[in-house]
Amino acid sequence: MKSAYELAMERLNQTAPIKKLTDEQKAQLAELDSKYNAKLAERELLLNGELAKARVSGDYEAVEQLEKQLSSERRRIEAEREEKKEKVRNAG
Question: Does residue 92 have a pLDDT over 70?
Answer without folding.
Answer: no
